[in-house]
Structure formats: structure tokens, C-alpha cells
Design a protein that fits this description.
The complex is a heterotrimer of chains A (530), B (326) and C (328). Chain A is α/β, with parallel strands linked by helices. Chain A is built from 18 helices and 20 strands. Chain B is mainly alpha-helical. Chain B contains 13 helices and 2 strands. Chain B has a two-stranded antiparallel sheet with strand order 1-2. In chain B, a hairpin with a 2-residue loop joins strand 1 and strand 2. With 328 residues, chain C is an all-alpha fold. Classes of the chains: A alpha/beta (530), B mainly alpha (326), C mainly alpha (328). Chains B and C meet through helix 5, helix 11 and helix 13 of B and helix 7, helix 13 and helix 15 of C.
């Protein structure tokens, strides 16, 4: 295996040059005792030990990054902290005194608040209510004090420079503003500890910057922040300390200034993983897919590109740039308003995914749980779902053939499962993704579209997915990969199309294919070349 | 913004006004204050039950047992009155409320503690409650002459020109309009139905909130049970048979989303009024009352189609705005 | 992957037979047998071929609808208008009789009305994207409402004598036409749900409609077909019921929708969609029929039986949950 261009990305690439390392900004005298300490926390679920005697310390005015692979126990510890789960053993200390959080409310009253991964807001309630739900000011008869609620909401919204009408129903807001409300909510309880669970996962670059500013402000106010993230660039940028979980146990902790990226990775996976993208030396073959002038009423406009056999075409852009929508239009989920998609020179009339699949175009969606796997059905039925015509006879199921077909791809993808009739819901994220990929390979496609193929899966599975993509391309499959991870885009793609606000911002290949060029085009920064 | 939010209710008011105007154009007597008051009084039970159903639907549940609850409570009240004619009305009222609340609580507990889907629970308790009426009454009717004058007189007694039944509906409606906005429980109904997952994170107990919705719905069904039996001066196994669907219909027409978390108290009241006006107008304009069922069916389908279109159109606007922000 | 050892993954860990033994259907079958034994001990009239044959009329018509309803509920939808479709189809047939139609025409009208009603529900749900529970509460009023408009408080009678075969005729010995039709339909729906691609699509849609769509299943088309089938079954039930009663009133089959749903849920179909079997529904039909018949022999009035059915409906779901709560 040889190292490809872009593979050895240093975190410095993303660091804002005029911002000093975060740890440097904290005066030594502030580094006192931890506000919150967790010791020996253990939590088991039927069949799984989610946390095993883990420890965590959060200091006032500092950001502690919690890192770990998926399933390492990060979400569980957040739920323990916020009173959703009760630990089986261990102590939580607040200012050195032991406390328990029997309910979510108890944690809130102790000054612990969380901005969760999932949207935890209420569309039908007003902005003000969303900020204060659960602890709205009351009159002395126990009724909600609306004037006071409004006044306090304005106060908090002003603090984070959010110009929102507090009495507006939340459903009227866009995604970015909803996020501001979530933050305002976290601030509303005068929290001493703020937990941020992958807060930047759904944000655009500009919004991420605003979030970083906010984190700085929270630090300055002396709050302790627990920051959970998969993105190493942002961890190195904003965190002061780190704690690493591996398989539900503590794998390490310390100051960010004392650790390197590769050391962190080693702690996470328990072994040294050089993030190496597979070598791909075969030149792309003849043209397979041609998209011309494809437009959608609201999502994207006038997109044209071609794709060849054995080629990996990357699609980069910010969230909301229309990449997934474009792919879903090609796959027949949504209908394009104009333009053509042709395969091997013949124009296709794709009105539903079934048409696309029949033509040989398949799509691995971004949202695995909702769009990819049919949780509730066994592995083999998930795999054969689009291939039933192939395994059945005159519409009647042939189970033996289904098992055989599923087995072929399960073995090829090295899926880990107890049996083929196990519910896919019991598989890990990485293995679910393998089932979804197996499902599509079983249809023997010409073109495979992978939308954020490694989002939210652990590093081990990530490498396996990358290797497999290269293998597929080498076999002559035409691959489209939508990704927001720059190393992945740069490391895997032959060519990259950058999208911005529904339009094609650039086509990049060869020596131009660098992280900086991609970021500039995606953000629409003037002077972008290429 | 406010306009958009209120438009569904405004539209419903418009529809009702047009309807009334059309009827009044040919039959002016229909809009005489006396007749309108009569129509309102006739719709009062539907309004009360629709309000209870509204909070249940807001929490993503459904209560199909309200009519059976009503009938059982009504029968108990009637039999009690026969057995003890001197029992004062406030005691009977209190008993009706308590019995209704108990039946609501049974639904609520099954939904809360055993997490059985509400439609299954209330489908089951609907037949159980209805069957229980037969058990306690042995299938016999309780007729007007067996009831005391005070018992049947209460809902009809007139106060400031309106019968007590109407006043109770007004009182319940006013309480709901305020309580849903001012009490933490009222806001919790919206939160739990709108985003149950998030509700857990904010310390709201989804199951318990649903339990209280069922208790409220049951209590109002119990209250209506006494009022119904007293007003019509008869109690038997099948009273208000199938009325649960009319109640759900009033909510749907009023814009309460069956998916939970969306809809207003005013909407539910208007939905009930719409059905009540249609029902009362048919004989006036000389249409057979047999048309009523088909009309309310059509109204439900139109209302749900309209609600779906409104929310879909709004989704598109948000999409554009989000893009604008990005 | 670094430590990927080519491990053999078995097709199944639990054999289908072992799974069957622990299934809902087995439990339900035990309940059915217990009721059967209890009935035969309680009443000397129970174990009589003709009496038992009569008893099947308690459930055959509802069960025919329940088969299609089971598929519909597994797919995540519901149709509460089935009883009203019976009323409308019966009314249409009654009107045709007044116009002098013969039996073949009546059957055609019954089936056609059922299909048409199913299509209305299907279009409203799949084309307009409306929630089926509300839509069918609406069409439930609408369809029966049309019957009321047409009939008012009148009755249609005078069905041709050969029309009576569907609800009163016997194919052989004690086996009525309805019972034979029930058996045939049970097999047809069992095969359709458990042995065909279409059935697999129904399960996939019920578990995750979005992922099913993304897997190339024509979700709306499948759902539309299911509404059509439910309408068709209601039409067939309307023919049998009208034939058996020999008359049509607009209140015909009133409240049946809830009995059909009860039968389906009792049969182990998840009301939230995604799981359930036809054998389960068949056994549930027998359980409900046996209870009704057995209590009937003991002179227990029908409404008390409905209490029993209501308790059964809640009990069968509550007991396993209570059991796990108690053990946990």
C-alpha cells in the first residue's frame, strides 16, 4: 500500500493561524479543582457492559474533549451525567461532594446541561418556551409567567447575539436559528457544566465558527465544557483537556498540549492506525454515466458531469449545498425539473428508485438507520430486498437462494454477525453499513453512489469501507462518493466536484485536489482558483 | 407570522360564517339568537368531549373509549338517582367526574405503565366499559319517569338566558383555553406529542403526561355522561353509540394533528361547532337528517387533506429560509 | 481490516421449528384449545358437528376482512371504513335487486363497490399522503352515510333465492360455502404474505417505509394494492353477510371495523406495523368464534362476550409485558 496525496493531513491545516492554541489562553490560576468528577462509573445493559469503571473530570473555564470510537461509551456517559441513565456503580461529585441525578430534572437543577446530537426542541412551542421548557418561570399560583418568560428569553438571546422573536413558534425558524435556540436553552439554567455532543455535526462552516466563538465565551464565563467530537481538527482547536474512552473503559486523559493526534488515535483504537488510503493505480475506463443540465425547483440547478468505469468521483460541499438532493434525484427519490441522466449513452427515465436500480444505479444513503437498513428485518432479507426478482421464482420466495446470495456478499464484506437471520438492528453502525453495501452489490450495479459512507462509524470499519470502495472501482464499478470529510474526499477521489448553494462551484482534479482548494470553493471565498 | 399561525382557525371561522350566512339567506329563523343558543346547547356535549380528546391526541394518543365511558357513567348516575332520588346534584356531579376520571386513569395506566398502543387499549376498554353497562343494568332502560325532577332539570335550568349545559361547555372551554397556555401540564401536552424523544431530555415524563391526558379526557366523558342522560332523560346500553368517532372528527376538522403536538383548543371548539351547525341545519333546510353522516365524513376528509397541504406548503418556505441563512 | 478472521456465519441460530414453538401463534393455539375443551365440558351441545359449523358464521365474514387488514396493518396503515364498505356494497346490491338484477350482477356490484371504496381510501392515503387512520374515519362516515342517504330507515329485501347460497349454502356436509371460502382465503393470504415477494415488501414497508423506498420497493403502489384488497374483502364479506341476512339496512355490520381490528391484533399483528402472521389471525378468528359460540350456548348475552373479547385484547398484550416487568 502506498500513501496517497492528502493522506497525511496534519490538524494544523485547519487551524486558524491567528488563533492561539486554546490551552495557552487559560491563565494558570484559573486551573483549580474540577467542578464535576466522575469516578468508577459502571453501567450495564442486558448483554453489554457499556461503561466499566470510567472516570471523568471537568474543570471550570476549560473545554474537555471526550473522544472514542462509536460504541466506546460516550453517549452513555452523557446520559449518566444528565440523569437519563442511572449508573450501576461509581460516584459523581459536584464541587467534591457526592451527588446523584435520579432524573433529568435533578441534573438540570445541579447546573448540568447538554446540547444533544439530536434536535431536542419542540416545533409547536415558542422560542421562549423552548429555551425554558422544564423550568419556565411561574407565578405564585404555579402558572406559567409569560411576561417574565419573555423578558428572560430576550435577555439570553441578546447574550448570544441571536435576533429572534421569543414569541415566534419554533417551526418558523431555519436550522441554524434552531441551533441558536438549543444553545440559549443550555445557557438558560446558568449551567456550570455544558455538555456538547457532536455539536458541529450538522452545521455549516460559518455556523461552526460562531459556535467556536460561543465556546470561548462560555469558557471565559468560567463554565466547564464537555465537548464530544469525531473531528480532530476541532478538538485540537478548542479543547484544553482530553479524555479517551475505549470499549467502555477509560483509555487515557490529560492536557491537549501534551498529546499528538496519532497518540490520541492510538488511545482510541488501542493500536496505531496510520490513516492510509488504499492505492489505486488503474486508469478509469469508458464513460458510464452522463448527467446533463439536471435541475430541481428548490435544491439545485443546472448540474452536468460524467462518470467513467473504475472511477471514484467525489462530491464535496457544505451541508445544504444540494449534494444529497442531487444524488436522490439521480436515484429517483425526488424528481428533477429538467435535465437528463443517461447510462451507456441511453437516456434514462427514472421515476422511482426501482427504475434506477433496474438501470444499475444504486445509492447508499447518508442516514443509515432511517434510509439504509430496514431494522426489524433479518440481515439476509435486507440484503436480498432489491434482488428479490433474482432470487425468487414467479414472485414466490426461494429462501435457500436468498441465504446463498446474502452469504456471498456477507463473506466478501467480512460482516460480523451471529447469524444471517439476525435483526440488522442488533448490528453495530459499521456492520449495518456493510449490510447496506452488500444489498447493493447483490444487484450487480454499474454505478454506486455512496452518501457519507463512513459517517459515524468507527475507524476500523472506516478503513474497511475505503479499501472496499477501491476494490469496487478496480473491478470497473463507477463510484460516486459524497463526503464532508476532506481527508476522505482527497484520499479516495479521482476527481472532485464541489457544490455550493445548489450550484456546481468547481471541478477539481490532479494537483489542484488539495484541502485548501476544496474549502475555498465550498465556502465561495473570492480568489479561489482552479 | 401570527396571521399564518392563526389562519387555520380563521379559515374555519370563515367557513362556519359562510355556512351560517347561506342558511340564514333562505331560513332567517336559523340565526335567531334563540335558535343559535339551541344549536350551541345541542353541540355542548361534543365540545366538551372534543376538548378532552384534543389533549389526548396532542400527546400522540387517541381515546376511543369516551362514548362508552360517557354511557357507563350516565347509567351509573341514572341508577343511583333511581335508588336514591334525594341525592343532591353536586354529589352526582362529583361522582360522575370521579367515575369518568377512574376510567380515564385505567386507559392512562395501561398506556403509561404497560406501554400498550393507545388505540388497542381504548378499543379494548371501549367494549369493556360498554359491556359493563349491560352487566349493571341487566340491559334495562332507565326512563324519564324514574328519574327525579332535580336530576333531569339540572342541565336544562336556565341561567342568564342559557341552559346550564351550555354554561358548563363554556366553562370547560374557557378553562382549557387558559390552562393549555398557562399551566406547565398544558405546555407538556404539546412538548410530549411534538417531540417525545426531546421531552425525555428536558425532564418530562412522556408516559405520565399521556396518563394525565387520558384522565382529563375520562373526567370530561364522565361529566358529559351525567349531563347527557339527564338532558335526554333516558339511560340505556347503547347511548352515544359511535359518538367517539364524531368526537375525533371534531378534532380533525378543528386542525388537531393526529400525529400529535399540533393544533389549538380554539380549533377543536370550532370543529365541534361546525359539526353541530351542520347537524342542526339539515332539518331546517329540508334535507333528510340521514345526510348528516355523509357530510361529516366528507368534512373530515377535506379537513385532513387541507391540514396536510398547509403543513406541506410551510415546509417548503422553511426550506427556502434555511437556504437563505446558510 | 486487521483482525478479520474469516468466521463462518450460520444461516440461522434458532431453527424455524424452535422459533415456532416459542411464538405467539403457539400460545394462541393453546388458548384456543383450552377454550375448546372448556366449552365442551361446559355444554353438552358444543361437540356437535352442525353446532360447530353454525358457530363458524360468527367469524368467517369478519376473518375474510381481517386477512387483508392484517397485511394493511403490517404495512403500517389501517382501514377503519371496512364495515361501512360492507354497508355501501350491500346497499348497492339492494338497489340493484330493486332494479331486477340477478345474482351474477349482484356479485359484480358487491365486489365492484368494495374495490371502488378501497380505491378511494388508497388514493387519499397514497396519492395525497394523508394519515390512514383519519382518512378512514372520514370515509367510514362517508360510505355508511351514503347508505343512509339511499336507504334512510327503509330495508332492501327480495334477494333472488340463488343469491342465498353465499351465506346459507353448504359445499359438502357441514362445510358451509363461507367456511370453505374462509379456508381458501386463509391459504391465499398466507401464501401471499409469507411466500411471495409482495409479502416481503409488506414487511419491509411496515418496518421502515423510507428504507423500503430506498431499496427500490414501490411503497405507494404496494399500499394502494393493500387498500384495494381490503376493499375487495369487504365487498366479499358484504355479499356473504347480505346473502345470509337476506336483507340490507344501513346499519348492517355496524361496529365490525373494531372487531376486525381486534381479531388482527389478537392474532399477534403489531398495531404499529412490521410484524404478524396469517396463521395467527386464523387462530384468533377461531378463538373469537369459539368464545362467542361457547358463551352463547351458556345463554350469556352477546355484549358480555364483547367484554371478554376486550379483556382478551388487552390481556394478551399486557400479560407478556407484565411478565417481563415482574421478572426484570
Amino acid at each position: 500500500m502506498s500513501v496517497r496525496r492528502g493522506a497525511a493531513l496534519a490538524p494544523d491545516t485547519f487551524r486558524n493561524p491567528h488563533m492561539r492554541h486554546a490551552a495557552d489562553t487559560v491563565p494558570a490560576e484559573v486551573l483549580g479543582l474540577p467542578v464535576l468528577t466522575l469516578e468508577g462509573i459502571t453501567k450495564s445493559f442486558p448483554g453489554v457492559k457499556a461503561l466499566s469503571e470510567v472516570a471523568l473530570e471537568l474543570y471550570p473555564g476549560q473545554v474537555t474533549a471526550l473522544v472514542g470510537e462509536n460504541g466506546a461509551g460516550k453517549s452513555t456517559i452523557v446520559k449518566v451525567l444528565t440523569g437519563i441513565y442511572q449508573p450501576d456503580a461509581g460516584t459523581i461529585r459536584l464541587d467534591g461532594l457526592p451527588v446523584t441525578f435520579p432524573t433529568a430534572r435533578a441534573a438540570t437543577e445541579a447546573g448540568i446541561t447538554a446540547i444533544h446530537q439530536e434536535t431536542v426542541l419542540f416545533d409547536e412551542l415558542t422560542v421562549a418556551e423552548n429555551i425554558f421548557i422544564g423550568h419556565a418561570p411561574r407565578t405564585r399560583w404555579g402558572l406559567i409567567d409569560w411576561p417574565e418568560l419573555r423578558r428572560r428569553a430576550v435577555e439570553i438571546l441578546d447574550r448570544i447575539d441571536a435576533r429572534l422573536d421569543p414569541m415566534m413558534p419554533l417551526k418558523e425558524l431555519g436550522i441554524a436559528n434552531k441551533h441558536l435556540v438549543a444553545i440559549a436553552r443550555a445557557l438558560s439554567i446558568d449551567a456550570r457544566v455544558v455538555v456538547m455532543d457532536e455539536p458541529t455535526a450538522a452545521l455549516s462552516q460559518k455556523e461552526i465558527e460562531e459556535l467556536y466563538d460561543l465556546v470561548e465565551r462560555l469558557k471565559a464565563e468560567g463554565r466547564a465544557i464537555l465537548f464530544i467530537s469525531h473531528k480532530f481538527d476541532e478538538i485540537f482547536r478548542i479543547a484544553d483537556r482530553f479524555t479517551v474512552f475505549r470499549d467502555g473503559a477509560l483509555a487515557g486523559s490529560g492536557l491537549m498540549s501534551d498529546v499528538s493526534e496519532s497518540e490520541l488515535v492510538r488511545m482510541m483504537v488501542g493500536r496505531s492506525v496510520d490513516h492510509i488510503f488504499p492505492a489505486r493505480d488503474k486508469a478509469p475506463g469508458r464513460e458510464v454515466l452522463r448527467v446533463e443540465g439536471l435541475s430541481h425547483p428548490t435544491e439545485f440547478d443546472d448540474l452536468s458531469f460524467t462518470l467513467c468505469e473504475g472511477e471514484i468521483l467525489g462530491f464535496y460541499g457544505l451541508i445544504g449545498s444540494g449534494r444529497s438532493e442531487l444524488m436522490q434525484a439521480i436515484f429517483g427519490i425526488t424528481r428533477a425539473s429538467s435535465g437528463t441522466v443517461s447510462l451507456d449513452g441511453a437516456a434514462l427515465n427514472i421515476r422511482a428508485p426501482a427504475d434506477a436500480i433496474a438501470a444499475g444505479i444504486v445509492y447508499v444513503p447518508e442516514d443509515r438507520g432511517k434510509q439504509g437498513a430496514v431494522i426489524g428485518l433479518p440481515i439476509f432479507q435486507n440484503i436480498t430486498l432489491p434482488s428479490l426478482d433474482q432470487t425468487s421464482r414467479q414472485g414466490f420466495l426461494k429462501l435457500a437462494r436468498e441465504f446463498a446470495l446474502a452469504r456471498t456478499y456477507v463473506e466478501r464484506l467480512e460482516l460480523r454477525a451471529a447469524s444471517l437471520d439476525q435483526d440488522v438492528g442488533n448490528l453495530s453502525g459499521g456492520n449495518q453499513q456493510k449490510v447496506v453495501i452488500a444489498k447493493w452489490l447483490a444487484t450487480k450495479p454499474r454505478v454506486i453512489i455512496l452518501d457519507e459512507p463512513t459517517k459515524g462509524i468507527d475507524i476500523g470499519s472506516k478503513a474497511a469501507v475505503h479499501a472496499f470502495m477501491a476494490e469496487l472501482a478496480a473491478e470497473g464499478l463507477a463510484v460516486i462518493m459524497v463526503s464532508s470529510e476532506i481527508p476522505e474526499i482527497v484520499g479516495m477521489s479521482d476527481r472532485v466536484i464541489v457544490m455550493r448553494e445548489g450550484l456546481m462551484a468547481a471541478k477539481v482534479k490532479g494537483d489542484d485536489l488539495t484541502p485548501e482548494v476544496l474549502v475555498r470553493h465550498a465556502a465561495g471565498i473570492a480568489g479561489a482558483s482552479g | 407570522m401570527t396571521y399564518l399561525l392563526k389562519s387555520r382557525e380563521a379559515l374555519l371561522v370563515g367557513v362556519i360564517l359562510v355556512l351560517v350566512a347561506l342558511i340564514a339567506g333562505r331560513f332567517p329563523a336559523f340565526v335567531s339568537p334563540g335558535n343559535l343558543a339551541r344549536v350551541f346547547n345541542d353541540t355542548a356535549p361534543l365540545i366538551i368531549l372534543a376538548l378532552g380528546q384534543t389533549v389526548v391526541i396532542l400527546t400522540r394518543c387517541i381515546d376511543l373509549s369516551v362514548a362508552a365511558n360517557l354511557a357507563l357513567t350516565g347509567m351509573v348516575c341514572a341508577m343511583l338517582n333511581v335508588a336514591m332520588p334525594d341525592l343532591p346534584i353536586p354529589v352526582i356531579l362529583g361522582l360522575a367526574l370521579a367515575l369518568g376520571a377512574t376510567m380515564g386513569a385505567i386507559n392512562g395506566l395501561l398506556v403509561w405503565l404497560l406501554t400498550i398502543p393507545p388505540i388497542v387499549v381504548t378499543l379494548g376498554t371501549m367494549t369493556i366499559y360498554r359491556g359493563t353497562i349491560f352487566l349493571i343494568s341487566d340491559g334495562q332502560w332507565v326512563n324519564a319517569h324514574e328519574m327525579s325532577a332535580a336530576f333531569t332539570g339540572f342541565p336544562r335550568s336556565v341561567l342568564l338566558g342559557l341552559p346550564m349545559l351550555s354554561w358548563i361547555a363554556i366553562l370547560v372551554a374557557a378553562t382549557f383555553l387558559l390552562a393549555v397556555r398557562l399551566t406547565p401540564l398544558g405546555r407538556a401536552f404539546y412538548a410530549v406529542g411534538g417531540n417525545p424523544h426531546a421531552a425525555v431530555y428536558t425532564g418530562l415524563d412522556v408516559g405520565r403526561t399521556q396518563f394525565w391526558a387520558f384522565v382529563i379526557s375520562g373526567t370530561l366523558a364522565g361529566l358529559t355522561g351525567y349531563l347527557w342522560v339527564a338532558r335526554y332523560s333516558v339511560a340505556y346500553v347503547d347511548i352515544a353509540g359511535g359518538f367517539e368517532l364524531e368526537v375525533v372528527a371534531a378534532c380533525v376538522i378543528g386542525g388537531i394533528s393526529i400525529a400529535g403536538g399540533a393544533g389549538t383548543i380554539a380549533g377543536a371548539i370550532l370543529g365541534a361547532l361546525f359539526l353541530g351547525i351542520v347537524k342542526n341545519a339539515l332539518p331546517v333546510i329540508g334535507v333528510s337528517p340521514f345526510w348528516q353522516m355523509a357530510i361529516s365524513g366528507t368534512a373530515i376528509v377535506i379537513a385532513v387533506a387541507f391540514n396536510a397541504r398547509v403543513s406541506r406548503a410551510k415546509g417548503r418556505i422553511i426550506l427556502k429560509r434555511a437556504e437563505g441563512h446558510a | 481490516m486487521t483482525d478479520a478472521t474469516a468466521r463462518h456465519i450460520p444461516d440461522r441460530l434458532v431453527s424455524p421449528a424452535a422459533r415456532l414453538l416459542k411464538s405467539w401463534e403457539t400460545l394462541l393455539l393453546a388458548v384456543a384449545l383450552a377454550i375448546f375443551v372448556a366449552n365442551s365440558l361446559a355444554s353438552p351441545y358444543f361437540l356437535n358437528a352442525w353446532n360447530l359449523s353454525d358457530a363458524t358464521f360468527n367469524f368467517t365474514e369478519k376473518a375474510m376482512i381481517a386477512f387483508a387488514m392484517a397485511l394493511l396493518i403490517i404495512s403500517g396503515e389501517i382501514d377503519l371504513s371496512v364495515a361501512s364498505i360492507i354497508a355501501l356494497a350491500s346497499t348497492a346490491m339492494g338497489a340493484a335487486v330493486q332494479a331486477g338484477a340477478g345474482t351474477p350482477v349482484l356479485v359484480g356490484i358487491g365486489l365492484g363497490t368494495g374495490l371502488a371504496c378501497g380505491a378511494v381510501n388508497g388514493i387519499l392515503v397514497t396519492r395525497m399522503g394523508l394519515p390512514s387512520i383519519v382518512v378512514t374515519i372520514g370515509t367510514m362516515s362517508l360510505f355508511r352515510g351514503i347508505s343512509y342517504i339511499a336507504l334512510g330507515d327503509k330495508v332492501y329485501k327480495g334477494y333472488p333465492s340463488d343469491f342465498g347460497y353465499f351465506g346459507q349454502g353448504y359445499v359438502w356436509w357441514v362445510f358451509s360455502f363461507e367456511l370453505v371460502l374462509f379456508a381458501i382465503l386463509a391459504v391465499v393470504y398466507g401464501v401471499l404474505l409469507h411466500k411471495t415477494n409482495f409479502g416481503r415488501a409488506v414487511y419491509a414497508i411496515g418496518n421502515n417505509p423510507t428504507a423500503a423506498l430506498f431499496s427500490g420497493i414501490r411503497v405507494q403502489r404496494v399500499k394502494f394494492i393493500l387498500f384495494l384488497l381490503t376493499g375487495l374483502m369487504s365487498g366479499i364479506a358484504a355479499i356473504c353477510l347480505t346473502s345470509r341476512l337476506g336483507s340490507t339496512r344501513p346499519s348492517i355490520a355496524f361496529g365490525w371495523e373494531l372487531e376486525v381490528v381486534t381479531m388482527v391484533v389478537l392474532g399477534g399483528v403489531n398495531i404499529l406495523g412490521g410484524s404478524g402472521t396469517i396463521p395467527g389471525v386464523v387462530i384468533a378468528a377461531f378463538v373469537m368464534g369459539l368464545v362467542t359460540f361457547g358463551l352463547g350456548l351458556l345463554n350469556v348475552p352477546g355484549i358480555v362476550m364483547s367484554i371478554f373479547i376486550g379483556c382478551l385484547l388487552i390481556g394478551v398484550i399486557a400479560l407478556p409485558r407484565l411478565w417481563t416487568m415482574w421478572r426484570g
